[in-house]
Write a structure and sequence with these properties.
The chain is an alpha/beta fold and 275 residues long. The chain has helices at 33-45, 70-87, 98-109, 132-138, 153-162, 171-180, 185-201, 222-231, 256-268; strands at 14-16, 21-26, 48-52, 90-96, 114-118, 141-142, 183-184, 209-214, 236-241. Helix 8 (222-231) links the parallel strand 8 (209-214) and strand 9 (236-241).
């Protein structure tokens, strides 16, 4: 059977119209608007018009991931950010993981009223990523699910997001998922580039900024986020959520309510952040 990748309409861009304040929500690497929908809904319920975008090479466009460059992500997000600025009295910029690195670069060029960074990815936890500029030319792809345990709830959740109609208990389907879910190393190198760009841009950010970081995050290390916070030039509040991992935007995780409330309070207030 042919797997129907990202068939769920929830992966498509969204706009929840609400009030005069507008928020642009940027998902992470390999992410889609689906991962930002819970936060978008919560913002809209609080009177903030929320828009979630789909970046090139992700979701239904996954087949093109290997040909996408960091500038493609920045261009599409930048166009959406210009539209948000033009159509709202106050504009809030929200980025999760790689989306945080993109948001930092947009905020440095066209400052938001508020900047929210959720587990912002600006450097890899694994130092071997420094070799990606070379690796991309000698190893075309990596297969993160080659040895996946399909009994693991986390694996099943990730696979269900990509192929919601797949029977994850069927051995033939499991084999297809193992072999067809390869990530181009070129895309990982572009992730490295856009993440590093976010780290450099942080020094130019003057907007009030909220950073929310999971204390148990193994993908974006809390120590790295603390170093990033020191680079941000404007008023800043850094919150580390105890016990939270990387997916702090997921509404089925214990940390969700705390993350949601922090973002809503910050996005809807006119007071500056505390350093």
């Amino acid at each position: 059977m042919a797997l129907n990748w990202y068939a769920d309409p929830a992966h498509e861009p969204f706009c929840f119209a609400s009030g005069p304040v507008g928020a642009l929500l940027i998902p992470g690497f390999m992410g889609t608007p689906k991962e930002m929908r819970p936060l978008g809904r919560a913002l809209a319920d609080a009177g903030v018009t929320a828009r979630g975008i789909l970046l090139p090479g992700f979701g239904p466009d996954i087949a093109n991931l290997g040909s996408i460059q960091a500038n493609d992500w920045l261009r599409i997000a930048g166009e959406a950010w210009e539209e948000t600025l033009a159509s709202h009295e106050r504009a809030v910029l929200v980025g999760f993981s790689m989306g945080g690195a993109v948001a930092l670069q947009l905020a440095a060029r066209r400052p938001p009223a508020r900047l929210v960074l959720l587990a912002p990815h600006w450097r890899f936890a694994d130092r071997r990523a420094l070799a990606l500029p070379l690796v991309r030319h000698v190893m075309r792809s990596l297969s993160p699910f080659a040895n996946a345990d399909f009994a693991d709830p986390g694996v099943r959740q990730a696979m269900a997001a990509m192929a919601p109609d797949a029977d994850l208990d069927d051995p033939a389907v499991q084999q297809q998922l193992r072999t067809q879910s390869a990530i181009p190393t070129a895309a990982l190198d572009e992730l490295r580039r856009v993440s590093a760009g976010g780290g450099h841009a942080a020094r130019l950010v003057v907007a009030p900024t909220l950073i929310v970081q999971g204390h148990a995050d193994g993908i974006v290390l809390p120590a790295h986020t603390r170093r990033l916070a020191l680079r941000v030039g404007g008023p800043l509040a850094l919150h580390e959520v105890p016990g939270a991992g990387h997916l702090i935007v997921a509404d089925d995780r214990p940390a969700w309510s705390a993350v949601r409330d922090l973002v809503i309070q910050f996005a809807t207030t006119a007071a500056p952040a505390d350093r």
